[in-house]
Structure formats: structure tokens, C-alpha cells
Design goal:
about 800 residues; alpha/beta; seven-stranded parallel sheet; binds adenosine-5'-diphosphate; binds zinc ion
Length: about 800
């Protein structure tokens, strides 16, 4: 471990300017100090640094507050994580003092301290990095109320004439502001545009933007407070719900850690169980956190909670920093009983947490794809464990991780096997596209069978949902003469033609280029635009069904705040007959008049090089099928596929989750994939392919050595929430306890101009896996042109 080296970094570093001119020597003998503080910074460091607390700051210092302290040659902000009167054991004569304490009150309480500490250990990143990510910027920037400086564009009539020229950075600022479509705080705008506030101020000087101040805290916090709307009725539970509720109620009455997995088919009344549980907790004077995927944060969902559960705070991604900060403080001061939000709501600073609910617990969006790379479900389970409270995870298609936990009894399985009011699950018809007659005209995404069913549905005044999980117009642009395929300049990825934007776009990095009619490689004019995306599907639908309103819903059409809500409202009111889109339309929507759900191509995503591709395909099909037949009108599902015999598709068509889970777990076990083994993915990337390769080889040797030296699993194994962790025994003799796969090129080798190599480390024992990684990470010091990422329990395998 590199503990000592890191401590020396803090202690022995060169004098910093802040203290250099003080009359008093900047470091005194330890005996002069009586108080010491451990501080963590927003850096990938595995250990807190110890500082002396000057007498003047002794009253102000405290765990969970931010301080400024010298780090290297600068003074940096960090979180105080420990205060002690015992001097550190090492030679502390050069111990540096804390420079200042930034907060009057602790921003993070003991529970969150412990939770974030666990996250740092488990996800192998800096504790300071976790705290930095967990505490919203609006809280960090100012712990009290404040005047905010806001920026808005100057009206057209008042723009200077002639228009001044702008720098590329300033252009970026203008675009960010335009996208937001409302005034933004100066600092927030600069952060969004990845520039300094000077760039924004430059635009103010040029007369293109206007600055004004506003007291944001109380206004922002309250403006979006979702006051108890008219209360929706407390329904009479059906027999299945009553049976489930009895068990949940017992868990709540006990009030101790108890994880429940609620497996209920779509429309089985899971939400009613959540609501009753929350009501009961709130009645006891406690608080609840409800995690839902961001795309499920629809007005409809929000309304169901606000109608029943006291003061509800809804945390979504369109909040300003100030609003986020406002919520944080309102939750921390006990003004909110229920927090509903996406991933980061798991960190809500509740004071008397009594329950956590996670709806759609299988959703991949609970995994954060930047440091700290945490999974909100797993963090939630750990939080419930630390705070000793019940947690309910619900889904129609539980993740295999949770399913295995339930089948081992680690989680209590609750089951809602049928829909409310004995409505049948919608019948699903598979259309074998290999035998489907060719459609008329130039379009052929919708085959004759699906088309005639759509006509019948529209004639009967039903509504239709069409799923195609690929956006853009054409997804494959190639030259039949020379074989050239249009590719991103920065990534090893094919470009997608977007007709509305008139551009070829990379879906990973956003790089764009104008469409071309001639092959850039051989100059032939035979370029083919093929492959189907939602944009093209929309034009096909509009051509085939004139006189009906068709709306597309994907991240291209839904980028503006509020657009989601507008479309769903119009669909509910019947002003839209056909809603088509990507997975965005597959989840959670409850529209009684939807009598037909069509899947245009079920095979998209089935053959990706990712061990979860079957699970994802099954989930998507099962979820979208669940949008049909949610009222007495009934409904059905038609799935177009080229592989109707694929078990993933046949089982989804039969709504056979349990069978699918059993089959897929069999595969996972055979191939030793999660959830049977724990996986960590390490990515090495550099703009220099050779350097990345070389460093990957070095890491490989270091991993091999660490694995060879493995003894027994670490005594201080980081507790974890997955099944694999319960197998903390040395693995069978015929296998290495930790498997190393790689280095190999990532499936997408070049991404955003970085060449990428990856490793997969796997083990049944999460303790041993962490031992190996910690040993290697402590000594792995990449050259400056190389970065590496460690992803524990990875979800992105590309
Ligand atoms: P899920 O979350 O499992 O998809 P919901 O909780 O959204 O299911 O329930 C589906 C529909 O059934 C909702 O409109 C809900 O109001 C209604 N519902 C739920 N429980 C009952 C009940 N016991 N009696 C009547 N209607 C119910
Ligand atoms: Zn790209």
C-alpha cells in the first residue's frame, strides 16, 4: 500500500504561498497543536491527509464540513472526515495547518460519511471524489441563502449592430444557454460550457448577454416544491397485493434492515404497494427515498406520489444548482418527507430515513458512468443496511443480480403474478421477417402484417406504440463500389445520418459531418444510405398513415426540458395516435387506450459483444409489451424479428420471466459471468496507441504478480451487496482465485480519439478482487499521456 508515500506528499511538500509570508514559522512542533483533522480531496487518492488544526479554527472544525488545506503547492478545498486530539504516529513536526473552515454546519452527516467511505473502498476511488460527487454543487458553493448572478441572452432588438464576433468558447456558452432555454447562473453556465466565468463575462461586455441578480435559494427551492396535490384514493388491495403488503408491513413494523424484491408483472399494482409503505413510514414521522429511472419521472408518476405522501421533493436532472442546493437543505432540515428522484437521490440527506424504494430496479441508468462509478441500487442496499431500515426493490423483469439474491434468500421475494382486475397479459404475436412478404413502395420497415394490424387499430380508435431502439434516419452509410463505410473521425464507429439535422453524426462523441453524395474514398456517386432509425420510421409511418398524428420520442426530439411532458399529455388526450420511439417509450407508461404495441426490429442489440445483451433485450421486449392492454379495452403486441426462435424473444413473447432468468443464469454460471463472479473492468486509454499498449502490458504484469501473491482473502474485505460477496471463501483449487482477461482492445477500440485497451478481472471473492486491484493501483503510476479507469461491476462493456 502506498499510504506512507501519500502521507509524505501532504506533509513534506514545498511551502505554499499562502503561508510563506507569515511571521510565525509555518510549521510548529506537534506539541504546540492539540487538535488534528483528516481531510480528503477531490482526487483519486486512497487515503486522507492529516493536518493540524490551529487554535483559531478549533471551534469551527468538524466532521462533514469543508475546509481549505495545503495540498502540494496549493491550498485546496476538501472534506474533513475525522477530528482527533491524538497526534499522528509519524513524525509530525512538519504537519501543516488547515487554512480555513468553509462551512458553519456539517454538509454530510455520519450516515452519509460511512456510506461514502464504503463507496470509495468498494468502487476503488477517492473518498473525496465521492463526497464531491454526492454533495450538490449548489450546496458546496454556498451553504446559506444567497444572491445568485444569472445570465440571459439579450433580446433580438437590443443586440449590438453590427454583431460582434465571438470566440469558439463564447459560442459554446451561447449554445449552452440556448439549449437551457432559461436564465442560468453564471457559474453553472461556465461549468456547462467547460470554460471560466471570464468567457461568459466577455459576452456580457460584448452586449450579447445580460447579467442580473436574484435571490434564488428560497424561491428556487419552493417554486418546485410538489405540494400535496388533491389526494388520490387509497385503493382496496386485491388478494395478491394484500398478501405482499402483509409481508412488507411486517418488515416496516420491525423497522430493521430487510431487503425485499417485488417481482410484479407490468400493471400488477406495484406502485400501490410502494405508496402504502411510504404512507406508513411517513405516518411514523420518518422519511422515505424513492428511486426511479430518470425517464420514469413523468408528471404521471410524480402525481401519484405527491397525491398521497406529504411533502414530496422531486429531484430530476433539469434542476439548477441553486434548486438542487435548496432541496438538499430542505431535506436536511426535515422539511421534506419523501424524496423522489433518479440515481443521485440515493444520497438525499434525510434525518430519519425509514424506507428506500427502488422502482424498475433492473434499469441500467442506475449505474453512473463517471467517477464514482456507483450503482444506485447497490448503494441504496448498503445505505439501508447501514441505517438499518427496510428497502423495497421492484420490477417486472428483475436484474439477474437481484433475482439470484432473492433465490438464495438474501432478499425476500414478493410476487404479484397477475395484472390488476384480472386483466390478461397482452397476447404477443411474433412476425418472422424472413418469411414476411415484401412491403409495397420504397419503405419496408413495417411489414404487411404489422401494417394491417395498425390500420385495424386506428379504425377502432385505439392508440399505437411503436418501438425501434435506434435513432437517426439511416444507420449504415456505405459505398457499394469500394466498401467504404462512413465512420467518425474520432471513434471506430459508424456514423448515423440524421435527416432533420442534415448531418452524419457519431452517437458516442457527437462528431458531425455534412452528408455526402459521393464516396470520399473512391469518388463514386453510388453511396448507399441504409439501415433504419426512428427518423426514417417516422417518415414511413407518416406516408402510410396520412391523416393520423404520429409523434417521435427519442433523445433527439426530447432534449428540451418539458418536451417529454408535452408529448405524453398530448398522447393521453388522444391528440396523437401513433407514438414511436426508442426505449424511452418502452418503460413505465400507462395509457389505457394503447391497444397495439409494435416492435419494428426485436433483434437490435441482441448480438452485441456484451454478456448482458440477452438480458437487456428480454427486459426491453417485456417492458414494451407491458404498455399494451392496460385497460378493459385489452390490447396486443406484434414483434417483428429475424430470429423468432431465439429463446430470449420467445420467452419475452410468453411473458416468461422466471424461465428466462433460470436459463440465462445457467449461461452466466457456465461462463462464470456476474452475478456468479464479480467483475472489474480496467480501461487504459491514450491518444498514443503504442503508449497505451505498453502501459497495459505493464499493468498486466503487475496484475499477474499480485494474483500470484494472493493469500487468503483480505480480512477487511469490503462488504458488498451482491451474491458473489457471500462466497468469501478461497476458490476451488483448480482455478485461480482471480481471473485476468486481457489486455485486449476494447470492442470500440478508438473512442473520442483515445486508443483503448481493457482488462477484465473476475473472481468469486470480492475481497480478493479488491486486494489485487488495491495492490496494483497503489503502485500503478501512468505517464501523463495515459489515463486509466477502474469500473467495479461494469455495465458498459464497449
Ligand atoms: P405497476 O407499477 O405494477 O406497473 P401500477 O401500480 O401502476 O402497476 O398499477 C396499474 C394500474 O392499476 C394503476 O392505474 C393503478 O392505479 C391501478 N391499481 C393498482 N392497484 C389497484 C387496486 N387494488 N384496485 C384497483 N386499481 C388498482
Ligand atoms: Zn465519435
Amino acid at each position: 500500500m502506498s499510504t506512507l508515500i501519500i502521507d509524505e506528499f501532504a506533509i513534506m511538500s514545498e511551502p505554499d504561498s499562502l503561508f510563506a509570508n507569515e511571521a510565525e514559522p509555518r510549521a510548529r512542533h506537534t506539541t504546540a497543536y492539540t487538535l488534528f483533522a483528516d481531510v480528503v480531496f477531490d482526487r483519486p487518492l486512497d487515503h486522507p491527509f492529516t493536518y493540524a488544526v490551529p487554535d483559531a479554527l478549533a471551534a469551527a472544525i468538524g466532521v462533514g464540513k469543508r475546509v481549505e488545506a495545503p495540498l502540494g503547492s496549493r491550498v485546496s478545498p476538501g472534506f474533513c472526515v475525522r477530528v482527533s486530539t491524538t497526534p499522528p504516529s509519524f513524525d509530525a513536526r512538519k504537519l501543516k495547518p488547515i487554512a480555513s473552515v468553509l462551512d458553519d454546519d456539517a454538509l454530510v452527516d455520519d450516515h452519509l460519511m460511512t456510506l461514502t467511505r464504503w463507496m470509495a473502498d468498494f468502487y476503488l476511488c477517492g473518498w473525496g471524489q465521492v463526497l464531491h460527487a454526492v454533495v450538490p454543487a449548489g450546496v458546496r458553493e454556498n451553504a446559506g441563502t444567497r444572491q445568485a448572478v444569472l445570465v440571459e441572452p439579450v433580446e433580438k432588438e437590443q443586440l449590438p449592430d453590427p454583431l460582434p464576433t465571438v470566440t469558439p468558447q463564447q459560442k459554446q456558452v451561447l449554445e449552452c444557454l440556448k439549449k437551457a432555454a432559461r436564465p442560468l447562473e453564471l457559474g453553472q453556465l461556465a461549468r456547462l460550457a467547460r470554460c471560466g466565468t471570464g468567457v461568459v463575462n466577455g459576452l456580457v461586455k460584448k452586449g450579447l448577454l445580460r447579467k442580473f441578480t436574484e435571490r434564488v435559494e428560497s424561491a428556487a427551492g419552493q417554486a418546485r416544491e410538489e405540494a400535496s396535490a388533491e389526494s388520490s384514493p387509497d385503493l382496496v388491495l386485491n388478494a395478491d397485493q394484500a398478501r405482499v403488503w402483509e409481508q412488507v408491513q411486517a418488515g416496516l413494523a420491525e423497522g430493521t434492515y430487510h431487503p425485499f424484491l417485488l417481482h410484479g408483472v407490468t400493471g400488477s399494482g406495484k406502485t400501490e404497494i410502494y405508496l402504502k409503505a411510504i404512507e406508513s413510514v411517513v405516518k411514523q414521522g420518518q422519511e422515505a427515498i424513492v428511486l426511479v429511472p430518470e425517464i420514469s419521472l413523468t408528471p404521471q408518476t410524480i402525481h401519484r406520489f405527491t397525491g398521497r405522501c406529504g411533502n414530496v421533493a422531486v429531484l430530476h436532472s433539469h434542476l439548477t444548482d441553486a434548486e438542487r442546493g435548496g432541496y438538499w437543505r430542505r431535506v436536511a432540515t426535515g422539511h421534506v418527507q419523501v424524496v423522489v428522484g433518479a440515481r443521485s437521490a440515493v444520497f438525499a440527506p434525510t434525518r430519519k430515513l425509514g424506507l428506500i424504494v427502488i422502482d424498475e430496479e433492473h434499469e441500467n441508468s442506475f449505474k453512473q458512468e463517471s467517477t464514482p462509478r456507483y450503482h444506485a441500487r447497490d448503494v441504496a442496499v448498503m445505505r439501508a443496511r447501514l441505517e438499518n431500515i427496510p428497502i423495497i426493490m421492484g420490477s417486472a423483469t428483475p436484474s439477474l443480480e437481484s433475482w439470484l439474491n432473492a433465490s438464495k434468500g438474501t432478499y425476500t421475494l414478493l410476487n404479484l403474478p397477475s395484472r390488476i382486475a384480472d386483466r390478461p397479459m397482452p397476447p404477443v404475436h411474433l412476425i418472422d421477417m424472413r418469411h414476411e412478404p415484401k412491403a409495397r413502395g420504397k419503405h419496408f420497415a413495417i411489414g404487411p402484417t404489422l401494417e394491417s394490424e395498425m390500420r385495424r387499430t386506428l379504425k377502432n380508435k385505439g392508440q399505437i406504440i411503436l418501438l425501434l431502439n435506434r435513432r437517426g434516419f439511416n444507420t449504415h452509410i456505405h459505398c457499394p463500389a469500394c466498401g467504404h463505410v462512413a465512420q467518425c473521425a474520432n471513434c471506430d464507429l459508424a456514423l448515423t445520418f440524421h435527416r432533420v439535422r442534415s448531418a452524419l453524426v457519431c452517437h458516442y462523441c457527437g462528431w458531425e459531418t455534412p452528408p455526402f453524395a459521393q464516396c470520399p474514398a473512391c469518388n463514386q456517386a453510388a453511396i448507399r444510405y441504409q439501415g433504419l432509425g426512428t427518423e426514417k420510421l417516422q417518415s414511413e409511418v407518416e406516408e402510410k398513415f396520412p391523416g393520423h398524428v404520429c409523434q417521435r420520442m427519442d433523445s433527439d426530439t426530447m432534449s428540451k426540458p418539458g418536451s417529454h411532458r408535452r408529448v405524453l399529455d398530448a398522447f393521453r388526450e388522444g391528440n396523437i395516435q401513433i407514438l414511436l420511439g426508442t426505449q424511452m417509450i418502452a418503460k413505465g407508461l400507462d395509457f389505457p387506450n394503447v391497444t397495439l404495441v409494435g416492435v419494428v426490429n426485436a433483434d437490435v442489440g441482441l448480438h452485441l459483444p456484451d454478456f448482458r445483451s440477452a438480458e437487456r433485450t428480454f427486459q426491453l421486449l417485456a417492458q414494451v409489451a407491458g404498455r399494451a392492454g392496460r385497460s378493459a379495452r385489452g390490447g396486443h403486441v406484434m414483434i417483428q424479428t429475424f430470429t423468432p426462435e431465439h429463446p430470449c424473444i420467445t420467452l419475452a413473447a410468453n411473458h416468461a420471466y422466471t424461465q428466462f432468468a433460470t436459463m440465462e443464469l445457467g449461461h452466466r454460471k457456465e461462463h462464470r459471468y456476474p452475478p456468479f463472479e464479480r467483475m472489474v473492468r480496467v480501461i487504459v486509454r491514450s491518444e498514443s496507441e503504442a503508449d497505451a499498449n505498453q502501459f497495459a502490458e505493464q499493468l498486466s504484469s503487475a496484475f499477474k504478480e499480485a494474483i500470484a501473491q494472493l493469500g487468503n482473502p483480505s480480512k477487511q474485505a469490503v462488504p458488498s451487496t451482491h451474491v458473489a460477496a457471500s462466497l468469501e471463501h478461497p476458490a476451488h483449487n483448480d482455478r485461480a482465485p482471480v481471473r485476468l482477461l486481457g489486455p485486449a482492445e476494447c470492442p470500440v477500440f478508438r473512442l473520442k480519439n483515445f486508443y483503448r485497451f481493457h482488462f477484465q478481472l473476475q473472481s468469486e471473492s470480492s475481497g480478493m478482487l479488491h486486494d489485487v486491484l488495491r495492490t496494483v493501483l497503489a503502485v500503478a503510476k501512468p505517464p501523463s499521456n495515459i489515463e486509466f479507469q477502474v469500473d467495479v461491476d461494469p455495465y458498459n462493456m464497449m
